[in-house]
Amino acid sequence: MKTKAAFLEKPEKIEENPLKIKELELPELKENEVLIKVNACGVCRTDLHVVEGELGEIKNIVPGHEVVGIIEKIGKEVKTQKIGNRVGVAWLYSSCGSCEYCLSGRENLCQNKQFTGFSKNGGYSEYIIADNRFIFDLPTGLKDEEIAPLLCSGAIGYRSFKLANASPGSTIAMFGFGGSAHLTLQLAKKLGHKVIIVSRNENHLKLASELGADFTFSPKNGDVYENLKDKDIEAAIIFAPSAIPIMNALKVIKPSGRVVVAGIHIYGEIKIDYDSQLFHEKTLLSVESYTREDMIEYLRLATNLNIKPVYTNIKLEDVNSALTEIKNSEVMGVKVIKF
Question: Is residue 325 part of a domain?
């Protein structure tokens, strides 16, 4: 069986249009796998890092890990799904299930995990094969293209929000306002927090205000610390893939506050001054993927709180252009490939 897909032969800068539309032969289905006809796949910044080789020198891969589709075939050991079910496939393709991390509910830290669209072919394709144990039942009432961005942009934002551990009603600052931040802002507001958005993109700040941000600020308009130091910020989440907002956030949070870095890749060197940035029992931590429990919790929350992405549908053939727009911070919300 063949599938049309956006194929990456080797990492290149996105401006070179490295993703080529090809017909690929699908492998035989294994006992614990399912064949899914893809309806929609979100275009994520992580895909940009994959394509440009910033996560490692991979070859011959189909990116994409925010996948919504319909099961068309199941392996003989699959007991929890049936043909016709609508399911989601996300970044965590599988984990070993037997290491200290998997056994303690931290499968996101498994050293033998595999990733959709990185170590296994992903959702920039008409069809995808997935491990039945790592796919998700999806809520009804949401369109395919509304759910797809929740499967990474939303879930990573949710895990970052959980790790921030902010007190009820407290103020959270978010640095950068792309696909993940615009969903996490909605989550934080609906759970009763005040939210500050910091971004150099004026259009992004406008969208943040429309989605309920209490205060927005651009570093183009002054020093971040001087403008935010009196805002009573308990926690900060860094969505921008840069070292600079990490250092700024450490300065502006309150004593005992937390800075959570949501990105999988950061540009630049983090230079921390202990007295002004890390003293007073402040915490700096990173996020690595999510657990299946995180995803189940988040999909339930997103449904109950009516969290939806601001999105634009695109064709598979337009994915190089979409990733270029992400690189240039030109996307409002998210873009979703609609099959």
Answer: yes
User: What are 185's strand-pairing partners?
Assistant: none
Domain count, the chain: 2
Separation CA 12–CA 50 (nearest Å) = 9
Query: Per-residue confidence of the chain (339 residues) as pLDDT tens digits?
Result: 999 999 999 999 999 999 999 999 999 999 999 999 999 999 999 999 999 999 988 999 999 999 999 999 999 999 999 999 999 999 999 999 999 999 999 999 999 999 999 999 999 999 999 999 999 999 998 999 999 999 999 999 999 999 999 999 999 999 999 999 999 999 999 999 999 999 999 999 999 999 999 999 999 999 999 999 999 999 999 999 999 999 999 999 999 999 999 999 999 999 999 998 999 999 999 999 999 999 999 999 999 999 999 999 999 999 999 999 999 999 999 999 999
User: Does 190 lie in the same domain as 101?
Assistant: no
The answer as to whether 294 is a domain residue is no
Residue 87: give the domain boundaries: 2-151+309-338
Round to whole Å and give the CA distance between 309 and 111: 32
Judge if 144 and 50 occupy the same domain: yes
Instruction: List, in order, residues 6 or more apart from 223 with CB less than 8 Å away.
Output: none
Question: Are the C-beta atoms of residues 168 and 178 closer than 8 Å to each other?
Answer: no
Burial class for 82, CB neighbours closer than 10 Å (0-12, 13-18, 19+): exposed
Residues 6 and 130 in one domain: yes
Whether 249 is in a domain gets the answer yes
**Alpha carbon distances (Å) from 270 to 85, 242, 247, 266:** 45, 9, 7, 9
Is 56 part of a structural domain of the chain? yes
